[in-house]
Write a structure and sequence with these properties.
By secondary structure, this protein is an alpha+beta fold. It has 5 helices and 15 strands. Strands 1, 2, 7, 8, 10, 11 and 15 form a 7-stranded antiparallel sheet that branches. It has a 5-stranded mixed sheet with strand order 4-3-5-6-9, with no helix packed on it.
Length: about 240
């Protein structure tokens, strides 16, 4: 088993070295003090070193987090009372509390898995290698119209324009509709369509179900789209073309 004891956390340009003998808490009263956001749990996410791995543990009651491997398109949703091993060299964590979305990254010096593009496999295919074994995973492209992609981009715009990790406010539906020059009815209709499309391929949190109503589907949509690299800074010019 690979020892991942060497790990660092980066948030807002500040880097913290994680000590294997101590857990590291993210929350209103945690080791990583974010702000006094009343929607954020006092103890939300916990980083703990166990069995040779750093684990990300969600101790919250309401909030979830989106976890992705930078550059590989692999992502997972971490709901309340669940945990996930951080096995890649760089892991990005995005979560939303109230109107604010936060992002931090964890860097491991000796990752268990290393992502790589399989030679000759074509775009969208990645592999994860662990102690000589290979796991191939095809990441299919979900077709989106320009209007559907623009809707995601306008919601993600504050995060896309931000440099590095930190916090941002996702616009309301009314603000996003105004930015695109759409009536709010058109925006809500297209938001329904986009959420349904991603829900059909198994993206959690965009519709009501066993994990509760999708009351924060805009933020969940942004978290997923950012983690899966569905939208990037290169897509921002689309907003100017769609305006009006």
């Amino acid at each position: 088993m690979c020892d991942m004891s060497g790990a660092r956390l980066e948030f807002c340009g500040e880097v913290t070295t994680l000590a294997i003998e101590q857990e590291f808490v993210v929350g209103r009263e945690g080791d990583l003090y974010i702000d006094d956001n009343p929607f954020l749990h006092r103890r939300f996410l916990v980083l703990r070193h166990e069995l040779g791995f750093w684990w990300l543990i969600n101790e919250g009651m309401r909030l979830s987090a989106t976890v992705s491997c930078a550059g590989d398109g692999l992502q997972a949703w971490l709901p309340p009372k669940s945990r996930l091993p951080l096995v890649f060299g760089e892991t990005t964590v995005v979560f939303t509390a109230g109107p604010v979305t936060y992002e931090f990254s964890v860097h491991a010096e000796s990752p268990t898995f290393r992502g790589a593009v399989i030679p000759g496999s074509g775009p969208g295919v990645r592999s994860a290698e662990s102690r000589g074994s290979r796991l191939d995973e095809t990441l299919g492209d979900l077709p989106l119209t320009d209007a559907q992609k623009a809707l995601i981009v306008v919601l993600a715009e504050p995060l896309l324009r931000r440099e590095g990790t930190g916090s941002s406010r996702i616009p309301s539906s009314a603000q996003a509709a105004e930015r695109l020059g759409w009536p709010i009815t058109k925006f809500n209709r297209k938001l329904d369509n986009v959420c349904d499309k991603f829900d059909r391929i198994g993206v959690s949190g965009l519709r009501s179900g066993p994990q509760g109503p999708a009351t924060n589907r805009r933020t969940r949509l942004v978290e997923y789209a950012m983690a899966a690299r569905i939208v990037t800074r290169d897509d921002l010019p689309l907003l100017d073309r769609m305006e009006g």
